[in-house]
Structures are given as C-alpha cells and as structure tokens.
Design goal:
heterotrimer, A mainly alpha (about 110), B mainly alpha (about 400), C alpha+beta (about 120), B: about 400 residues, mainly alpha, Amino acid/polyamine transporter I, about 75% helix, C: about 120 residues, alpha+beta, SH3 type barrels, 4-stranded mixed β-sheet, 3-stranded antiparallel β-sheet, 7 strands
C-alpha cells in the first residue's frame, strides 16, 4: 500500500540530488570564473580602478564559495573544478581562470544535452 | 507648455528609467540570448508609456492620485488587497535598490557593504527630508544621465547594428532546448516585470499631484511619458546589446551587478568605469527613493492621511513617519545579509504577481467619464491598455511556474 | 449636491476626500451612520472617518493589518456640518472641532521642525 507513495518520494528525493540538481551552481561557477578572468584581463590593461578590482574579487569569491557549498555532490569533477578556481590567487592570470571556467562549461554542456 | 520644464522632465525620465532589476536582467538577457530579447524591452516600454500617460492624465484631470480614486472606484476590500500586495512588492523592490546602491558604493569606494547600506539609508532619508519634491526627482534623474555612458560604450564597440535592429522584431531563437525555452520565457516575464514595476505608476501619478498638474499639463505628461521613457529604454537596450557583444562570447552571464560596469570600462578604460558606476549609483538611488515614496503615497492616500513632499515633513507627519519607517524596514532586509541578486529576483517575482492588480484600477479609472470627462481613454489608449493588461495577466500566471522550473532563470 | 438631497451612498459619498472650512484635508469618508425605520426613508445621520470605521466593511482578519498600520480611531461628523457633496465633501466648520487632525498632531510631535528647504 505504501509502495507507490514511497517510490514517488524516493524519485523526488533522487531528482533533488546529483549533477542535474547541481547544474545551476555549475553554470553560476562557470560564469563567475569567466567574470573573474574578464576583470583580471581588463585590470592588466589598466582599464579598472584598484578599488573596483578588489571589490569584484571579494564578491566573485564570495559567490563562488556559495556555489561550492550548495553542491549536492561536492566530490564530483565539477566540484573539483570549482575548488580549483577558489584556490586561485585574486590576481590569477585570465588564461588560468578560463581553463577552469571552460572545463565547467564542458560539463554544463554535457549535462544539458543528457 | 514650458520648454525648459518639458526638457528637464524628459531628461529626468531618461536618467531615472534604469534600476537595479533592469540592469541585472538586461546584462543577463544579452549574454544568454544575444539580441533576441530586445523586442521584449521595446514591447514593455510601450506598456509603461501607456500606463504612465494614463496615471499622469488621471492626476491632471481628476486632481486625485490613483490610490485615492482606486479605493472609491473599487471599494475598501479590493483596495486593501491591492494596497497590501503593493506594499510587499514595493518594499522588496526598495530593499533590492538599497542593496544595489550600497554595492555600487562598495565598488566605487571599497567601504564595507553593510556600512554603506546604513550610510545610504541615512543619505536617502536626508535627501528626501531636505529637498523639495521637484528637486528630489530632478537630482537623481538628471545625475542618472551618467548612464548615457552605456549607450556611448555600445557605439564604441562597433556592434552588429543589423542584428540589434533585428532584435526589435518579436522572435524566439531557433534551436533552443526545452530548458532553454523555459529560461527564455522566464526572461520575457522578468523583463516585462522590471520595466513595468508598479511603483513607477504610483510615483508618477502622485508626483503629478505634488507638482499640481492640471489640464494645461496633459501634453507635457504625454510627451514626457513617450519621449522620456522611450529614450530611457534605449539605455536598457544598450546594456543588453553590449552584454551580447562582450559577455556572451566570453561565457559570462553576469552573476553580480558590478560586472555590467565592465561594458563601459572595456572601450573607455578607468574613466568609463567611474562614469558607469556613478550612473548606476544615481539611477539605482533614485529608484530606491521612488519605491519608498510610492509605498508611502499608497498607504497615506488609502488611509486618508495628509501626504506629499510638496509639504514640509512636519506638515504631513504620518506620511513622513511612514516613508522613514519604510526605509528602515528596507535597510533591515538588506542587513539580514540576503544577496542583492536574490532580492532582485524576489522583487521581479512579487511585482509581476501584483501588476494586474495595479493596472486594472488605473485602466478602469482612466476609462471612466465620471472622473475623466472628455479626457477619458481614447481608442488607442483603450486598445493598448487592455492588450497590455491581458499580457501582464498571462505573465503573472506564468511567473511562479517558470521561476520554479528554471530556478529563477538559472536553468 | 446638498447634504439633504438623495444620494448614492457608494458612488457619491463613501471613500471620498473630506475638506474643512480652512481648506485642510481631513481624511476620507470611511463609513456613514444612518437612521430610519422599516418602511421609512433612510437618513444620513453622520460621516465616520478613521480606520475604526472599516469594521462594518471588512472581514475581521483584515482589521488586524489595518490596526497595525493605521490604528482604530473613529471620528464622527454630523451631517448638519456638511456644506456640499461633490468630487469631495466640504464641511461648514474647521476639522479641529471634531478632532479630525488629532492623529496628525500626535504624529507631528515626533518630527523635527527643521531642515527642509
């Protein structure tokens, strides 16, 4: 008698975990990494004030941390990429940041086409 | 019609058009869907022009603000429901604007965000206290014209103008997956909500009473609505288009409001960045003032209190205490630490849910000969008004399901 | 329209703004007091101004919100003090005679009387 409601509950619980549930955080982290790279790229060309750059670094890192802690599968490949981003210094090279951002983009595309 | 007053009115409308929600959603829309959502901006702008013109006309002809007449026309119960809904919507919007302006101050000065929230609240309260109504509007609106840097930045990056022009044609991009289609639909709803926020109509209508509009101001009202808001929306479209050109190819879907300022920094360097941040600061600060006063106007008008900033603060004491309390409530929301982007999402969501309740009374009032005499809605206003009412009702119905299905537009 | 002519309560009286002889805004007509008997004409006896007058026009749960924001004061103005009824109601006397500005006066005590241009 309880089987059908239980199965349904398990399905719902299953859907709320895993890569599909983490997709929005992967997208956020991908964008945050790309934003960070763009900020550092423009900063290296002297186009930004130090105050703005410093503030943006703080907020980008804060948001990335939030994405990382929201993951239902933090030990996944995408979880590692986000942690790798967080380990970068504030003034990391844009190319280095884009490596991780692009890796997240690939994972994102794979999940979306699944 | 005084040409100087008209020009200042138009410029104020232009500088005051963009707020934190439009900034955020324009940048995100451009990065995710290229130029495909430009038509939604244009379509929504026509909607806000139609309803702003109506609300200004009601103020000038009936010489009473919308909320006063709404209670008389719709009755106490429905009036109270509308009041409660608009208080919640406007309060969340005010908190989003306050959070946004504090964030922008942090980008400009490096000072701590929470401290800036407290400082900004005090500064905004002081500005409303000290300045007469006309100058409250003008200061923020005219200084918001720094936002023109975004239009200049778009020109400077040599975008594909043919694609931008194509964006004005209603469309749904080809080849979208089901999920992307839902996100696109969510952005359509969000942009309609952001452009047609309820507080704009309440503030505009009450502002008309504050400035003692009469029949002689009907043409000014019409021109200010059409030209001011039309030009203002071009700023939103410029932000969207620059984002399509600069952020989309870089895999950036702006997650924090400060990223939008890069649109001016990339072509113009440091001074472009500073001007963009100043424009954002004054535009969003102006929106914080408007949302707070719009709420105070609604409450005071509904309960029959003396109201208006054309009076000194102590001449309208309950109204004064109300707008001060509303600012403090908005500050309290910001000080909980809730993310500004989350506040923006909720502001958009609550506003679209409330929009039909906001615009229906206005449509009925402006179409009622008993209040409007010969200045009742003509066939154009009537047709467009009911068309847009239908659209916002559909958007309101779709908003919550789309929000949950797309995790607030995040896919 | 004069106060002793026939009137449509809802469309021509309720929720209209009220002004006194000094031209001061005194609030909104929130309810009315009637007198009459079965089979006789109903007569308007007084105007009721203030959120406490909503009681007869709103469900009790809504009054909780109203009390929170606006209190529950009611002021009664006899119909013989009404000089005309139109887009607004005009009184024959100052609003102070009936305490119509009392709440504003109380709130005024909290506001500094300085600093505004």
């Amino acid at each position: 008698m309880l089987r059908k409601p239980l199965l349904l509950a398990l399905m719902v619980a299953g859907c709320s975990k895993g890569p599909q549930a983490d997709l929005q955080y992967i997208e956020q982290a991908r964008s945050l990494g790309a934003e960070w790279a763009l900020v550092n790229e423009q900063a290296s060309q002297g186009k930004l004030t130090k105050t703005y750059v410093s503030s943006m670094h703080e907020w980008l890192r804060d948001q990335l941390q939030s994405s990382a802690t929201s993951l239902t599968q933090p030990n996944s490949r995408y979880g590692e990429e986000i942690r790798a981003l967080l380990q970068q210094p504030d003034d990391a090279l844009p190319e280095q940041l884009r490596v991780h951002s692009n890796a997240l983009k690939q994972i994102e595309d794979q999940l979306e086409s699944a | 019609m005084n040409p100087l007053e008209l020009t200042l009115g138009i410029m104020t409308a232009v500088g005051g058009f963009v707020d934190i929600s439009e900034l955020v959603f324009a940048a995100k829309a451009g990065s995710q869907f290229g130029y495909a959502l430009i038509w939604v901006f244009a379509f929504s702008t026509i909607g806000i022009i139609v309803f702003s013109e109506m609300s200004g006309r009601v103020a000038a002809v009936a010489k009473q603000p919308v909320f006063n007449l709404m209670r008389h026309r719709l009755g106490l119960k429905l009036g109270l429901i509308t009041l409660a809904a608009s208080i919640v919507s406007n309060l969340i919007t005010c908190a989003a604007e306050l959070g946004g302006v504090s964030l922008i101050l942090n980008y400009l000065t490096g000072a701590p965000y929470m401290l800036m929230a407290i400082v900004m609240t005090a500064a905004l309260i002081a500005s409303i206290w000290v300045l007469p109504f006309k100058w409250i509007e003008r200061v923020y609106g005219l200084l918001g014209l720094f936002m023109i840097i975004f239009a200049a930045a778009l020109i400077a990056i040599h975008p594909p103008w043919d694609k931008i022009a194509g964006g004005f044609v209603p469309q749904i991009p080809h080849g979208l997956s089901t999920k992307e289609l839902l996100v696109f639909a969510y952005f359509v709803v969000a942009i309609i909500s952001a452009v047609m926020f309820p507080y704009e109509v309440y503030f505009y209508s009450s502002g008309g009473i504050e400035e003692e509009w009469g029949l002689k101001d009907l043409l000014t009202n019409r021109i200010t609505s059409i030209v001011g808001m039309g030009l203002g929306s071009l700023l939103g479209i410029a932000i969207l288009s620059s984002s399509a050109q600069l952020f989309g190819p870089a895999n950036v879907s702006p997650e924090i409001p400060g990223t939008a300022a890069l649109e001016a920094a990339i072509p113009f360097g440091k001074w472009g960045l500073i001007v963009a941040l100043l424009g954002m600061f004054f535009a969003v600060a102006g929106a914080a003032v408007e949302t707070c006063l719009a709420n105070a106007y609604s409450i005071a008008q509904f309960f029959g209190w003396i109201w208006g900033r054309h009076k000194k603060p102590w001449e309208a004491p309950r109204f004064t205490l109300t707008w001060v309390a509303l600012f403090l409530l908005a500050l309290a929301i910001v000080l909980t630490g809730v993310d500004v982007m989350v506040l923006v999402e909720f502001a958009i969501l609550f506003s679209i849910l409330v929009l039909p309740l906001t615009y229906l009374p206005l449509l009925l009032l402006s179409g009622d000969r008993k209040y409007m005499g010969q200045y009742v809605n003509g066939s154009t206003a009537k047709t467009l008004g009911w068309l847009y009412f239908g659209v916002i009702t559909l958007a309101a119905i779709a908003a919550l399901p789309l929000y949950f299905l797309t995790s607030g537009g995040n896919g | 329209m004069t106060p002793d002519s026939r009137i449509k309560l809802v469309s021509e009286l309720l929720d209209l703004p009220l002004y006194d002889t000094d031209g001061l805004y005194c609030g909104v007509v929130d309810d009315v007091e009637l007198e009459g008997k079965p089979g006789k004409d109903l007569k308007l006896k007084a105007l009721l101004i203030g959120p406490g007058a909503y009681v007869g026009r709103m469900p009790s749960w809504a009054m909780v919100l109203v009390r929170l924001v606006a209190g529950e004061r009611v002021t009664r103005v006899p119909m013989d003090q009404v000089s005309s009824i139109g887009p607004a109601i005009h009184l024959k006397c100052p609003g102070r005679n009936y305490g119509l500005h009392r709440s504003e006066d109380r709130a005024r005590a909290w506001i500094p009387h300085t600093g505004a241009l």
